[in-house]
Please model this.
Amino acid sequence: MTTTTLAVLVPLLPFLGAIAGLLLGRTAPGFVRPLAVLPTLASLALAATVAWRQGGHQAVDAVTELTPTGSVPVELALHIDGFAALTAVVVTVVAGCVQIYSTGYLRDDPRYPSYAALVSLFTSAMLLVVYSGDLMVLLVGWEVMGICSYFLVGHYWETPEARAASLKAFLVTKLGDVPFLIGLFALATEAGSFRITRILGAVADGGIEHPTLIALLLLAGVAGKSAQFPLHTWLPDAMAGPTPVSALIHAATMVAAGVYFIARLLPLFEASQAAMVVLAVMAAVTMAGSALAALAQDDIKRVLAYSTIGQLGYMTGALAVADRGAAVFHLLSHGAFKALLFLAAGVIIHAAGTNSLAAMSRMGHLRDRVPDAYWTMTVALLALAAIPPFSGFFSKEAVLGVAEHVVTGHTGHAPAAAGWIVLLAGLVTALLTAAYATRLWLLAFRGHGPEAPDHGRQPLTMTTVLWVLAVPSLALGGFAFRVLPDWFDGHDLTPTLTTSVLGTGVALVGGIVTYAAWRHTTAHAARVPLGAVAAHPEGDAGLVEAEAIASHEPAYGDIAYASDPSDPGRLLLGPLHRHAAAGFHLDALYTALFVRPVRAGASLVRFLDREVVETYVRGAGALPRWLGVAVRRAQTGNLQTYVSALLAGTVVLAVAAVLVATGA
Amino acid sequence: MHLAYPAVLSALLFCTGLYGVLARRNAILVLMSVELMLNAVNLNLVAFDVWLSRTAEDTLHSGQALALFTIAIAAAEIGIGLAIVLAVYRNRGTSDIDKLRDTAEGHEPDGPDSDTTGRAVPGSRTAGEKAEATA
Amino acid sequence: MTLAAAAGTAAHATTTTAAAGTHGFLSPTGVEIAFLLVGLVTFGAAVITVTTRQLVHAALWLVVALGGLAVEYLLLTAEFIAWVQVLIYVGSVVVLLLFGLMLTRAPIGRSPDADSGNRPVALAVALAAAGTLVWVVTDAFRTTWIDLDGAPAGSTDVTGASLFQHWVLPFEALSVLLLAALVGAIVLSRKAKADAASDAADTRRDTEGTR
Model:
């Protein structure tokens, strides 16, 4: 088979698997698990083959136009360069792991068939985005991901949190998608094509007249999808979905799509200095703010969610300094260790029966209950904190190194201001990242108190996957920074000494300070008992997690916050802690700015509709009704009345006719 | 003779009949008034026929022929009309037309239809027999 | 343009206008006086027919009105129609009506409810119609003159000739109509009888009677 055929099969197999899973889900439940896992694994093999054949050389391009579509043609196009090939491999690896993990995680869930089919569809849509060479086809995958995320985040739709979160995820990403769509049309109109290669050609020839406007419009969509400030608020709330879904959304699909999209169209963004600076500011605010917020979260998954936002900030930062190689490098390594973090967090939540770090910190020997999760999560947290030699170190240093390059003026692609912004924000975030990673580890695994309940060993499907993902988290970075430049643009991704020392140094400082704070505060833990665990610890992991999420707010008063004096984050953040826990009140701000005016407008419209429009409608109805009543009165059944009226009318008509005939 | 005399007489007779049709309560009196109206028309027909046969030398005599036909039809009409009135009288016990108001708005059909009620009761003997008969 | 001219041209009146000039309304001929008197009697009888409270009297006054009309036909030299009028109307129709009155058990003597509540409306409509018709008719034909001298226009000879020369087909069609009316009348009254018979207590004798 040619590379093109293989590449077409990569998104097609999970799609067919999703269709078959939806069709057979009720009639043949035995087929659901193979149908979920096997197509994804098959497309993993195919994606790997495609990547091996492509090998970072000449990009594979294949085009077919199904039907003429007017002035700007829409073509089914493949464009597989090094970025696409490697991203697809990561997507399929993570998706395969998630599917295998889900068979254990949701083993008793009655809605598992539709869940697995939607995950397959999600994967397929992301692969379509990755491989597509045409922006319209890319948009199809982009939107299918939006709808799949809506369904998957709302998997536990019995709980109000999940319903609200799924709606929020859908609406916020759609809010970004509207300008995104307009930007796509503007871009295609100016370039005369939806094909990415032609658009990049037009950019190179200077054929785009309004690069700033288009870039900013596209940026809005990317901010929505990739959860960048100010449209990031859906991502922490999306934790109401099952943990494997979080892993999928955060590691490989959905949020990666935005970064990947900019990476594809980076020359267009480079054409506008303003867009690059906006991108840099966006990345800096996202990074620093999300890291602060992560330090204050009580829900273990919300910590990870805010860390995802921060790591995505690194990627957009790398794009803001015009190095897509570094961005996609970080995307790849982050995909591995973030998927691992989430899947391990799912195991921990299952074992602990709670998602609250405050409750976990009061459990002894939790790490002995879940040794696999303990070790793999340690690896992943070290990667997250960018401690050498874990993979996160190399990718993060690549980003910081590029920023330093820009600052020192070694490259002309990006404005120096963007470099400064990214570099400083990146260093601050490295400190904070190490701090919250340490806090997470300490609270989850170093708790004191009554022993954690023993629910037996975790399912093998769940623990094996953790080790599979631990390998790239540990070793991908050190191996890849030498190889990847051949696949990417050729920029050097080797860590530079300055940024390595600086970054590792601040990370160590952050970790040590947090440890010291934890030593100081942990004494309070015994004095303030806290903790609520799920009511059905024997249920499958999905049920335990759903109960943990549903009980967090009644137990602690807030979905993200627990008033725990032994939390080191409280000591470190001081008065900032309360605001950080609430995501710096951005949700409240949006409520005040958008939700309330819209609600007020809706109630105004409702009032107008009920009281004003309805009155007119009723008035319009009343007149015929009165006429009808009057006419009904005439229906006496008395023939003589009828004939009288008839003849009187005849007389009148006759007189009229005579008068007209005589011309009177 | 002036044509206006029979024409005016005809008009007056017609309107008298009209008044009778509209004002009388008994159906047979209404029929009498209808006869008056028909006769008024006949007078018109005859008068104009005579006039035309003299002034226009018309030999077709359509007016008189039509008057004859009208007389015949009137005879038929009175026969049928009386039969209807008698049938109504037998059914309703009255021939007052302002009491025959079945078409009035909001009128409830007074006598229950025995046929439909028989069908509406399942298992009743008549319904069973009817079902067999229709089968 | 007056209605007289319009109707005159429509009726192909070629010479009437000239003749009408010599006959005024104020110098009536003998025939006209007779017509007028008989017409008054007829109209009066008709008015009494539609206003009297005694039902049988109404039928009898109808006889007077119809008979008066027969006289008017004679004055218009339409002899055959006049005799047919007497024969059919006075002879049969009124008799039928009287039978109908008897069969529906109409009260003999004054009945207070002979007129329905529609009377004022009826009066208004009738007066309006009369006014309109009389105005139109007099306006149209106030100068038109019928020459009644010479051979009668409606003798049996003439009528028969025209009826059986020009009007044979309608005549035969009319006979079919009369047959249909005959059958219809019989069916209507017979069905009514059958219904009444089935309702009656002694059904056996009635069914035998109808057989």
